[in-house]
Amino acid sequence: MVDASAQAVGKREAGYRAADMVADGMVVGLGTGSTVFFAMERLAARIREGLVITGIPTSFQTAIRARGCGIPLATLNDYPVIDLAIDGADQVDPGFALIKGRGAAQTQEKCVAFAAKSLVIVADPSKLTRKLDAVVPIEVLSSAYVPVIRYLKTIGGVPVLREGIKKDGPVITDNGNMVIDCGFGTIGDPTALDIHLSSIPGVVTCGLFTTFADKTTVVVGDSNGCQVLSRNGQFPL
Ligand SMILES: O=C[C@H](O)[C@H](O)[C@H](O)COP(=O)(O)O
């Protein structure tokens, strides 16, 4: 059972530490979700003290929050090279393969991670796992969700079309597409599955992030503070 208030403290610790890694003048990728929210809170405080940055948001939610707290924004097309991106994750393994997309933002997050010189993943300990086994969110063209679901079943997946909350029918992403959450049990080879899913016609982006590990740092926060993890280094699990 996860203690929600302890989890929030950990998220704040991680978010604040990542925000303190940002230097003056940087172009900063702003991921999506509750942990990145704390990083933006800290960045906003630093901006009020004189820090100058340009933020590249990965979702409507992030753009709205960033505007609300005074973080200047631009687009990935304006700044195709990002100095540092801060993002959350749903699961992180010791080799820094990730599952992302609980908030259906994985497509823009993946574009920003690709463009970033370094990627800082902020997480609480509940996100760490020896083996990825969460459902993989898959953004899919609405015109092709049926054949994609059909195909996912043939490769052993358990796909479910994501439904909205406070909205009848399927979730529609910021990019106008649908999302399939697909279970695969324990994922033996995340890189192979990432490549496979990404190659299915109709799939826009899958939530497996397996190609950014070399430039990734993971910051894990809990009520005692933060640990900054290196790939295949000490993994507190
Ligand atoms: O689409 C959502 C993103 O991939 C989030 O970064 C991820 O789900 C983690 O979110 P949170 O920090 O709220 O747990």
TrEMBL record:
Pfam families associated with the record: Rib_5-P_isom_A
InterPro entries hit by this protein: NagB/RpiA_transferase-like (IPR037171), Ribose5P_isomerase_typA_subgr (IPR020672), Ribose5P_isomerase_type_A (IPR004788)
A biological process from GO: pentose-phosphate shunt, non-oxidative branch
SUPFAM superfamilies associated with the record: D-ribose-5-phosphate isomerase (RpiA), lid domain, NagB/RpiA/CoA transferase-like
GO molecular function, one term: ribose-5-phosphate isomerase activity
Keywords attached to this entry: Isomerase
Transmembrane segments: none
Domain of life: Archaea
SMART domains in alphabetical order: DeoRC
Active site per UniProt: E109 (proton acceptor)
Residues given in the record as substrate binding sites: T32, G33, S34, T35, D87, G88, A89, D90, K100, G101, R102, G103, K127
Assigned EC number: 5.3.1.6
GO annotations of cellular component type: cytosol
Known catalytic reactions: aldehydo-D-ribose 5-phosphate = D-ribulose 5-phosphate
Pathway(s) served: Carbohydrate degradation; pentose phosphate pathway; D-ribose 5-phosphate from D-ribulose 5-phosphate (non-oxidative stage): step 1/1
Function: Catalyzes the reversible conversion of ribose-5-phosphate to ribulose 5-phosphate.
Oligomeric and partner information: Homotetramer. Homodimer.
UniProt record similarity statement: Belongs to the ribose 5-phosphate isomerase family.
Name this protein carries in UniProt: Ribose-5-phosphate isomerase A
Natural source organism: Methanosphaerula palustris (strain ATCC BAA-1556 / DSM 19958 / E1-9c)
